[in-house]
Amino acid sequence: MRGRSGRGRAARAAEHLTVESLTAQLDAVIGDAGTGPVDLVGFSLGAPVAAAFAATRPELVRSLVLVAGWAGPGDEYLRNLMTVWRRIADDADAFAAGSRPSPGSAGSS
């Protein structure tokens, strides 16, 4: 399953996304597919969702791989990452800054 609720083609009515709500969605998708135990990979936010799913529905998980996840709301890396994202969210130029030469560099005019 690629993407998550509220993003791209998976856009839904405004709702708070939680690990529990995403786990329930994953359960529904795997149940609808009816393919039995799955090899489950969780990346970033998908890591705690996949871990929670495996803990609550172990009969549906053949193997589990967790990549670049986070441990919980007290995770210092996640706190710092979200702080940076909040700071640059309102600054469109911040995303392009890395692609422009800085003043006084060899590539600037």
UniProtKB/TrEMBL annotation:
Pfam families: Abhydrolase_1 (PF00561). It comes from the Bacteria. Signal peptide: none annotated. GO terms for molecular function: hydrolase activity. The keyword Transmembrane helix does not apply. InterPro entries: AB_hydrolase_1, AB_hydrolase_fold. Keywords: Hydrolase. Residues 7-97 form the AB hydrolase-1 domain. This is Alpha/beta hydrolase.
